[in-house]
Amino acid sequence: MKLVYFNDYRLGALRDQGVVDLTAVAGSLPHRDRQDLILAVIAEFEAMKGPLAAALETGPALPLADVKLLPPIPRPRQIDCMAVNYMEDGTLAEPAPINGFHKSPSAVIGPGDTMVLPDAPAKIFEGEAELAVVIGKPARNIDPADAMAHVFGYMNFIDGSARGLPPMNNVFFQAKSRDGFAPMGPFLVTADEISNPQNLQVRLWVNGILKQDFNTDDMAHNIPTSISWVSAIHTLEPGDILATGTNHRGLNSFQDGDKVELEIAGLGRLAISVSDPLQRTWGRDTRLEHAEKGLPGPFTPQLTGKYADT
């Protein structure tokens, strides 16, 4: 099932390129408001999937072109992100130590929305193409062998990043949790539709040019290991999001006017825009292209605009 939010936070699912409104079917579940209804559906999905599937099959479908899709989980309890979690196309001799960080739930935006770059002295703004895992059942100190039983589904996810902010070695919060730095969607795909999440092609385009192109089989610490590690730090609850990291070789600058599209096999295509009120510019090389040219630093420098010389 491909679950969506649309228009004024109606809950729905996709059928034949249309959206079926499931709000009334799920509305009896305890929830604060419609933005939280998806969390209730996830928590009670075993009981709800029959009625939802029946309504999806028989209900009228609105054409996708006639609705505004919203973030599939507009108000997650928390977003955990794995850090340095790829082998970079097998070029690393060994995995980096397992690590992660929190991203603010208030950073969430959805399909068709705009990531606004802040007035901050970042060396570069990047967006990391990532597979997001959505938790379906409470998980605490879970063994890797049992971890996948706690997965509800998967989404496209972009981890917006403001690199190089001061002070050194104390920047994850301000680098990762800016408003708009957590695009996700266009829909939430239940786990039964993805046969092997550890073998999904991930592609990201900027202005129609392919920048990131990698497979989730290159993860340094796979999904069960990542879930187990996070669950040993804090309890995971239904609807919590675990972003599984990215291959850094294709990372590139996000700039004013960019159209960014992320597509992971089976999860649809997420498209967002980028706006920079300061209209700063950077080179367009990926990190790999920058390194192959023998240029200093991990990424292309800022070329024009405020903070260019700092």
CATH topology of the largest domain, what is it called?
Answer: Fumarylacetoacetate hydrolase, domain 2
The tally of beta strands, per DSSP, is 19
Structural class of the secondary structure composition?
alpha+beta
Given this structure, which CATH class of the largest domain is correct?
Alpha Beta
Q: What is the CA-atom radius of gyration, in angstroms? A: 19 Å
CATH level-two architecture of the largest domain: Alpha-Beta Complex
Largest sheet: 12 strands, mixed
**How many domain regions?**
2
Mean pLDDT: 96
What sort of overall outline do the alpha carbons produce when their principal axes are compared? Answer: globular
Task: Provide a short characterization of the protein structure.
The protein is of the alpha+beta class.
Characteristics:
2 domains; 310 residues; twelve-stranded mixed sheet; alpha+beta; Fumarylacetoacetate hydrolase, domain 2
Describe this protein's structure.
- There is one protein chain.
- With 310 residues, the chain is of the alpha+beta class.
- It has two domains: 2-70, no CATH class; 79-304, Fumarylacetoacetate hydrolase, domain 2, CATH 3.90.850.
- It is 16% helix and 33% strand.
- The chain contains seven helices and 19 strands.
- The protein has helices spanning 23-26, 37-43, 45-58, 144-147, 172-176, 223-231, 287-292, and strands at residues 2-6, 10-15, 18-21, 61-63, 69-70, 79-82, 100-103, 108-109, 114-116, 124-135, 151-163, 182-190, 201-206, 209-215, 241-243, 259-264, 269-275, 281-282, 302-304.
- Strands 1, 2, 3, 4, 5, 6, 7, 8, 10, 11, 12 and 15 form a twelve-stranded mixed beta sheet that branches. The protein has a five-stranded mixed beta sheet with strand order 9-17-16-13-14, with no helix packed on it. Strands 18-19 form a two-stranded antiparallel sheet.
- Strand 16 and strand 17 form a beta hairpin.
- It is globular, with a radius of gyration of 19 Å.
- The model has no long low-confidence stretch (mean pLDDT 96).
